[in-house]
Amino acid sequence: MDVFFFPRMEGFMNNQQESGKALSDCCDCNIIHEDVVERVRLQMLPPELRAGMADFYKIMGDNTRISILHALSFSEMCVCDLSMLLQMNQSTISHQLKSLRQTRLVKNRREGKVVYYSLNDEHVKKIIELGRTHLME
After folding, report:
1. Among candidates 22, 4, 125, 2, which has minimal Cα distance to 74?
2. Helix or strand (DSSP H, E) at 55
3. 52/37 same-domain check
4. Residues 59, 116 within the same domain
């Protein structure tokens, strides 16, 4: 394992030191484990895919959208049903469904005058279930 030592910079203080907080989450030395850094660098997603992941998680970071996705993980539903279930007006539900469609998390189908929404695929259902499981542990 290649290990490099870097001297501490005089006068340098990180935010934790400045605020007086304990440094329990920081290293006590400046050692770079080059082999680890290089191995991880080779496995990292390219910047454009990381940006896409950030956008994906931003979409998932809204309570209304998570509520819609959670409901759709149980059944296909129309805007009227989602509105009744979530106690929100139809325009709010419709607006959020548009964002979810644009990010390919939900899909829709028309049957006569009614448009039904469902999760786009099993991956979305697994993501919702993993989040629930993580929070319940």
Report:
1. 125
2. helix 47-60
3. no
4. yes
